[in-house]
Amino acid sequence: MISLLPCYIHKLLKRKMKYPHKEIEQKWQKYWETKKVYETDLTDIGKKLYTLVMFIYPSGAKLHIGHWYNYAPTDSWARFKKLKGFNVFEPMGYDAFGLPAENYAIKTGVHPQDSTLKNIEDIRKQLKAMGCMYDWKAELMTCVPEYYKWNQWLFLQMYKQGLAYRKKAPVNWCPSCKTVLANEQVQTDGTCERCGTAVTREDLTQWFFRITKYADDLLDGLKKIDWPEKTKIMQTNWIGKSYGTEVKFKVDGSDEIITVFTTRPDTLFGVTYMVLAPEHELVEKLTTPEHKEEVRKYIESVKRLSEIERTSTTKEKTGVPIGAYAINPMNGEKVPIWIADYVLATYGTGSVMAVPGHDERDFEFAKKFGLPVKKVILEPGTKPEDELKEAYVEPGIMINSGEFNGMRSEEAIQKITEYLEEKRLGKRTVNYRLRDWLISRQRYWGTPIPIVYCEKCGEVAVPEEDLPVELPYEVDFKHDGGSPLASNPGFVNTTCPRCGGKAKREVDTMDTFVDSSWYYLRYLDPHYENGMFDEELANKWVPVDMYVGGAEHATMHLLYARFVHKFLKDLGLVNSDEPFQKLIHQGTITNMGAKMSKSKGNVVNPDDFVEQYGSDVFRMYLMFMGPYELGGDWSDKGIVGIDRFVQRVYNLFLNNKEIKKNAPSHGSYNLNDLDNAAKAVYRKVNQTVAKFDKELENFRFNTAVALLMELLNELTKNLEKVEDSIKTYALERFAVLLSSVAPHLGEECWALLGNDKSLFEEPVWFEADKNALTEDEVTIVVQVNGKVRAKVKLPVDTDESTVKETVWKENNVKAHTEGKTVVKEIYVKNKIYNIVVK
RNA sequence: GCGAGAGUGGCGGAAUUGGUAGACGCGCUAGAUUUAGGAUCUAGUAUCCGUAGGAUGUGGGGGUUCGAGUCCCCCCUCUCGCACCA
Length: 838
Known about the structure:
four-stranded parallel β-sheet; seven-stranded mixed β-sheet; alpha+beta; single chain; about 20% strand; RNA-binding
């Protein structure tokens, strides 16, 4: 027994305490929850700060690394702000309606409501294990009547103002999801944003929100918000405002008029044919009998093409003439009318004047079909008789254009437009690329549209007092070729609110982007019953100060939310112009170069890492990976580095347990009273505080974590050498900085020092001592002709003559200047001394 | 095609009012320590040549400057967004 004792003691001394992450993280999570540390007092708006991440779309899978990467660093920023004295509101919720739950139901038979609620429960557990400071009393989900009732109310307000309307239109149809999609939900390659199936075009009667009415407001608002430039550019392009002229072309031998939109009225004299989109309403009317068959065939062939094929720029141009002719309003020339699918029915007027000489597409088309090319704009440095080898699209001098000859084309644009306006043949106009927002979906798991169709009265809005129109539980999701809601007679059959007669309910549901376009307002009081949201709170807390989410929402959610917000402002419900004042996009985390997805089988489960290393290590590792906006490819290679850091920090604080009680720190120290080790520690601590503040403020988490590591290295080296009160000074500050990026560990360390109150319960922040930010001595780099030849250490702010004297004593400087003429000497204070020799 | 961003050691990445390139971490090398360790500690680590020291070096090529990863011009590669918008 006795012989074993020394060994035992030896072991105890040598072995360090392993950081019990599980125990400590659970302890603090429980503490925060029971003490309601993160419940925000929304009545206190002195230093209000609304931080938000895009809420979760519980698509069947649990939280993955991407969610963590989005939420954890943002939470660290929020905590940093809380420590600095802000009244931070950070809520979390669930964007719970949507296709994935319904598709899952079709596959497995599990009702979307059951799977979604179960899923949310799992996710909530994961969220709590992350240890973010979410205010759980503000938690919301969109699939409950208390929430979606207000989607319906919003719809009714739009309806009243004529901003919600129904029309038959060619729409994007996903054959796999069996629903229509908004333009924004069709990907660049013409596939469905959710399932990747090629989207087709169908003519269907659908509900729209008139977002186009807000096109200019949406553009103007971009100037006032602090968003990534790239996102603003994307929205600007998506709205696609362009100034131009509408020109009326008479159809030869008919009363019909073809109106075209052009940004280049200066090329009007160069029109050699006209093109209508195959879907254009005049096509049938104007087609001459001998062309009917060919035109019909062409329209059929276009319909068969997928959106991808049709809009591909590399596709060869196709088209057929319809036999009719139009009259050029400028010169009375008769030009043939064609239809071709390179003209889009959805942009401008769905018809164009073709100027092959000065438009690349028209040029290509004209060459293929042997149509004439007419030159009306002269390229500087060329002759009028030179043949056009390709379309000349830049400005130039007007030729072959009657009275406008000799004008510069920029001037001619104005003059010709004036001429047209005078003759009532056209007018200045503005055109947008933006289309109205198609909000109806032929799916079950969404908000029912509050409309009934009465046999007598027709389309009737459900009165506000009858809301919500509840989504019935019993339906056949597999209902083929239409809305599943139609399968429930109890839902469909109703009475007309106007006449009391027989009526049928609208069976389509709303796009889930309606739900997410105003949820940030609902968080302020998710159970509010007197309206969509608490207006008083909204006027105090909105706009959201910091919004963090994926860049993929640039032209969807982020545009819709701005639109709805502006509409709500016009209703008088909010006083702010914009919903999100500052926006940051987190980068994407890929795995082996590919986006993580279930189907690829490359999803990395964060739970395993949390289990092994703890939440703090995992979130700090994500922050340390690189710049937040960049994301990156996943690798767990370096996570041990963060783990080591945490172990070392924990042991450092264990070794100085309760130190604050015996040796409290002073507010600041005079550098002259400190010895070298104390000075070094004191300086490093204060420099770290100052830099950390700046880095975290700007979402530069990777460098913020690096700063803490540097500080730890300094403390490891010198802390043992300094007196206890300075140790306390250093460790207090270290714990506070740490607690924003590693909240559990930070709290634990703060408590170890001898503090009774939780840091987040009573936030503490230390400002840096400005006197300690600079060093006594600086290293001045000595260069000869820009190459480093020596380094001299001198007291900071040494006068130039002394620096010069010291520099010239350096042997290496002498060696490199010997026998050469000094041209000049440049001194950059405290940094560089450069000698230029010849 | 148009628009935006990026290219730095073996790896992730630091550094921009132009002023010591490679912070911090991983990995690697050597040593110490431990019953053992994939634990911990210490030192080293851009490349090439060397004894001090020197040469080269931020995708490639030019330029401006005493001085360029950083500014300007041309080119290459990658990523993202838009894509027949009249």
